[in-house]
């Protein structure tokens, strides 16, 4: 599929979202037919069909035979009807119609591979009729496992076999199974901080005690502090980002990674490497922790949706150890994942379509990052200190003067703007004066105005500080 078609698909999707939002959320709404929409927007019927398919998958629309598509009523959560959990609040309000979410971390929002994925899936469905389709495979479709093993193999030391790759429904589920299989539930983990909220939430569910190691402004650990913690605490696993630290956005020097891996090897500590943003480093060939880690105590985990989009939510992990126990866990869980969809993902890898896509997407991310940085400097430069990230989809910003970003978040909700306060990324209450800002936002909206509102909210909160 051409780059122009991808953008047409996204444009139709955004047009429909605005159409639904403009009509309100209290009642059912009839939407244009596929042909009407194609004529209206001067695109193909297949493009409008894929846009509707995505909205249907998200639960925003539904179809009635012979009647067409309808918007599903979406009752608004009132601003005073909020959970005590900050994370739940942020993601509930970010998904409300009419909200401008500055808090996302989805690179594929700029350019997805969902259309090529679905087209490939259709071609495969013709090749594999239902009676001949690939049989259910509890550890993941074999072709996809082989492609991932090949992709992650870099040397005679850092190599993988297909049977060491496991595919699950999403990132949360594969992490859960890995922790259970390796006997790590209820243990002690060391994590980089700020840390992915998804990892923190999973560790809380697994009753894992978390030790946070703050990243400095330069993106480095205090290695002396790390060494002392490893000597003092019964740490059983360490979780770090493979290349760009998410959400911090920094890139740790290779010697620091090598030193940490040396200490972990000496103590037999498991290293869990989060590769979710591994493809989005703006620097060529960054060092990864897996380049230095003990391969027998290494788990690499990631997900496809950051690159492909929401049509590919599968999570996966690679590990050499505890194969029988992992297999038992996957058999017990009994994922029922579409073999054809997994095979379609594999074909995107084997055809190098993914590599071409990543190269273009990385360039788009860099362009949007620079564009957002200009707006931040212009409209919020006096309030926020922002450093260009080394990759990823977000800025990690610090208030120039101490201010509680949760209270700033509350102020902005009233203006229908959603930010991600820094304390979401810590179990210990760190980063209260920070926030994560995305540059994979809906650029059809007035982002400059939203940033002005952010700066105003910070100023208003600062005036109330003692």
UniProtKB/TrEMBL annotation:
Listed Pfam families: Aminotran_1_2 (PF00155), GntR (PF00392)
Q: Where are the transmembrane segments?
A: none
List the EC numbers from the record.
2.6.1.39
UniProt-listed Gene3D superfamilies? Type I PLP-dependent aspartate aminotransferase-like (Major domain), Winged helix-like DNA-binding domain superfamily/Winged helix DNA-binding domain
Give the keywords, sorted.
Aminotransferase, DNA-binding, Pyridoxal phosphate, Transcription, Transcription regulation, Transferase
EC category: transferase
Q: Name one GO molecular function term.
A: 2-aminoadipate transaminase activity
Q: Which residue range or ranges hold the HTH gntR-type domain?
A: 6-74
Q: Which PROSITE patterns match?
A: HTH_GNTR
InterPro entries found in the cross-reference section = Aminotransferase_I/II_large, HTH_trans_reg/aminotransferase, PyrdxlP-dep_Trfase, PyrdxlP-dep_Trfase_major, Tscrpt_reg_HTH_GntR, WH-like_DNA-bd_sf, WH_DNA-bd_sf
Q: Which domain of life is it from?
A: Bacteria
**What family is it from?**
In the C-terminal section; belongs to the class-I pyridoxal-phosphate-dependent aminotransferase family.
This chain belongs to the protein called 2-aminoadipate transaminase
What is the species listed in this Swiss-Prot or TrEMBL entry?
Pseudomonas fluorescens
Q: What is the lineage of its organism?
A: Bacteria, Pseudomonadati, Pseudomonadota, Gammaproteobacteria, Pseudomonadales
């Amino acid at each position: 599929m051409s780059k122009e078609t991808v953008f047409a698909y996204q444009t139709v999707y955004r047009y429909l979202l605005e159409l639904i939002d403009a009509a309100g959320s209290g009642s059912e709404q009839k939407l244009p037919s596929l042909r009407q929409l194609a004529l209206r927007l001067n695109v193909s019927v297949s493009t409008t069909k894929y846009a509707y398919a995505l909205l249907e998958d998200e639960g925003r629309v539904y179809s009635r035979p012979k009647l067409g598509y309808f918007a599903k009523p979406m009752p608004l959560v009132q601003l005073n009807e909020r959970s005590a959990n900050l994370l739940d609040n942020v993601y509930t309000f970010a998904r409300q119609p009419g909200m401008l979410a500055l808090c996302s971390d989805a690179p594929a929002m700029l350019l997805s591979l969902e259309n090529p994925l679905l087209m490939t899936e259709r071609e495969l469905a013709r090749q594999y009729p239902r009676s001949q389709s690939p049989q259910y495979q509890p550890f993941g479709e074999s072709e996809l496992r082989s492609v991932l093993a090949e992709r992650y193999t870099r040397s005679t030391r850092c190599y993988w076999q297909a049977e060491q790759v496991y595919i699950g429904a999403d990132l949360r589920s594969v992490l859960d199974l890995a922790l259970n299989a390796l006997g790590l539930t209820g243990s002690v983990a060391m994590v980089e901080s700020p840390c992915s909220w998804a990892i923190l939430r999973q560790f809380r569910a697994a009753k894992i005690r978390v030790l946070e190691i703050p990243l400095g402004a330069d993106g480095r650990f205090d290695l002396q502090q790390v060494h002392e913690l490893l000597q003092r605490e019964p740490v059983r696993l360490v979780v770090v980002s493979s290349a760009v630290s998410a959400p911090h956005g920094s890139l740790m020097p290779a010697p620091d990674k090598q030193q940490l891996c040396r200490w972990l090897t000496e103590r037999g500590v498991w290293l869990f490497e989060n590769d979710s943003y591994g493809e989005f480093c703006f620097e060529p060939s960054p060092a990864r922790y897996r380049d230095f880690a003990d391969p027998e105590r290494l788990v690499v985990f990631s997900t496809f949706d950051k690159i492909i989009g929401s049509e590919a939510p599968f999570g996966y992990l690679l590990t050499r150890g505890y194969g029988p126990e992992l297999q038992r866990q996957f058999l017990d869980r009994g994922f029922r994942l579409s073999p054809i969809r997994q095979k379609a993902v594999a074909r995107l890898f084997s055809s190098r379509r993914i590599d071409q896509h990543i190269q273009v997407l990385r360039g788009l991310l860099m362009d949007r990052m620079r564009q957002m940085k200009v707006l931040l400097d212009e409209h919020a430069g006096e309030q926020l200190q922002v450093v260009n990230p080394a990759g990823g989809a977000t800025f990690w910003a610090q208030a120039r003067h101490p201010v509680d970003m949760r209270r700033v978040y509350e102020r902005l909700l009233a203006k229908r703007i959603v930010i991600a306060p820094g304390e979401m990324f810590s179990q210990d209450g760190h980063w209260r004066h920070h926030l994560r800002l995305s540059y994979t936002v809906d650029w059809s909206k007035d982002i400059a105005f939203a940033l002005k509102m952010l700066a105003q909210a910070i100023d208003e909160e600062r005036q109330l500080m003692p």
